[in-house]
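Field notebook, page 393. I keep forgetting to write these up properly, so this time I am using the form the group agreed on. The chain and the ligand, iron/sulfur cluster, are recorded exactly as supplied. Prediction of the bound pose follows.
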Amino acid sequence: MRPWGLYVHIPYCRRRCSYCDFTIRVGQVEAEAPRYVKALLEEARGWREQLAIAEGPSSIYFGGGTPSLLPAPLLVELLEGLWRIFGRRAETEVTVEANPDALAESSLRAWREAGVNRLSLGVQSFDPEVLRAMRRSHEVATVEQVVFQARRAGFDNLNLDLIYGWPGQDLASWQDTVEAAILLEPTHLSCYQLQVEPLTPLGRWVAAGQVMASDDELVAAMAEWAERRLSAAGFSRYEISNYARPGWECRHNLLYWRLEPYLGLGVGAHSYWQGRRWWNLASLPAYLRRLEAGEVAREGLEELDQVEAMRQFLWLGLRELRGVRRGDFRARFGRDWDAVFPTPLRQLVDWGLLEEDSVGLRLTARGRDLANVVARQLVDAPDEGPGSSLDSP
Ligand code: SF4
């Protein structure tokens, strides 16, 4: 069986951060979570039968939301239930996303004993002003303490999530954040450029002119500086937003970028399996009702034809700095990409956004800055060269 990933969405959060438009539920965790965990296990059993899954996942990722808000015994019960349903592999990467304020050392120990071996902390910034404006629920000082406790509990694989480009944040604030992160010696860092989503408090503040979005040059300078500094500190940028020490790349995310199968459990979760994508209901009450009635919680389904699968394989693969390899594409689809998308790819190379050689195709530094442009061109591209109507960026 090919490697496959299991994503488990835990939708509870203590409060909503000002930039977040994820599918979450504020509060309710004590009252509702046992019911939700039961539904997740029901959903897992259903898919195991329907997809005839014969081997355990190569990665499990508890994301959210704030998975660390689940009482530790419940998270352990969930993980052990998933091992029983799918089977356990010794080498499976098991990640839990956690907020620094929602962690007790006893929970960390219980997770570690149950098989969790990777911790991803939502740090976002070491600047107290920025944290406050983000409406994060933790303080800067908590982060160091939690990292220390996590190490003591046996976690050596540790990711810190950071966000740059916050309105009003200057380069020095971002540099201080990166330096503080390096001092904690994580194995992995995710540096996400802030996206201002319209239906969030931040989106409304920007729309009303109460805050000014950061200008593109400053944001690009932040990204460039982080790449230089993190490279000097021994991290390699292996994906547009992700840095790792050698050998500590996130195996779960690599499955997404290589268009390998993954199964998403929980409210609003997405799945990709044998050329099909589907997604679950985004309403938690509706999700629970469906599972409790013995029905599936799927809201939509899309079949990827061969050309669409090629398109996605290219775009997702380009997110990795190594790019897409010719041999991998040919082995997967039995064709070369030049025969399918000749004009769009040539144009992207001519514009200096892609570079191509005998090994494969990858984004240039400019292409990484303009990754959204590349994505759009690939998504909109006709599948044959003549007649392409791409506009130069
Ligand atoms: S903790 Fe994460 S998921 Fe929850 S509100 Fe904040 S950004 Fe959204």
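OBSERVATIONS:
- Residues 385-393 have pLDDT under 50 and may be disordered.
- Residues 13, 16-17, 20, 22, 24, 64-66, 99, 122 surround iron/sulfur cluster (CB under 6 Å).
FOLLOW-UP: compare against the apo run.
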